[in-house]
Task: structure prediction
Amino acid sequence: MEKKSGIHLISKSVGPWPMNTYLISCSIKNDSIIVDPGSEPDVIMDMASNTTVKGIFITHGHVDHIGALEEIKCVTNAPVYIHPFDANLFNIPYDHSLSNVDMISLGFQVLEVIHTPGHTPGMMSLKLDNNRVIVGDTIFVGGPGRTNSPAEFQITMKTMQEVVFAWQDKTVFYPGHGQPGTIGDERRSYEKFIKDGWSPQLCGDVTWE
Result:
């Protein structure tokens, strides 16, 4: 668990893939937000014990990120936040529509919503305090999220250029799978990738190497 400026961040790896579910909570009011309830609802609710769940934030609509959504919604009655692009594409019921640079209140804290499309059209990241960002499948250590077409990869690279690598080097990103990374650690490989160029047909599980 991390404790910084009143925001606690906990993660659990759930499901067969596996996928990272996050719990963000305010230490002062004990309110919380569940991010990407992918599987194992009992594990997720155990993460949220001793907090009041005020929201369920969906980074994107792929099944590995929403597998336990119905159960978590039923238990907590918390509103679901998602970008309408993904809600419509994946037929996901929701309560609050997300858009770029929205703000979500959590206790005495304010979290910034950032649209980071590419992996899906409605991919959203959630910026916490102290240069921490939950990014879903936007970026991983070693490369961007998977894309299914060259057009999607072009969108991903636009997101990398205009959003992700505009963040400070000390920014820590928390992905939907695997370990956290920092923008500074990724920047040199990313910039080499840009300099070297890529095939117009490139897509799939791309790495910076």
Notes: Residues 183-196 form the longest helix (14 residues).
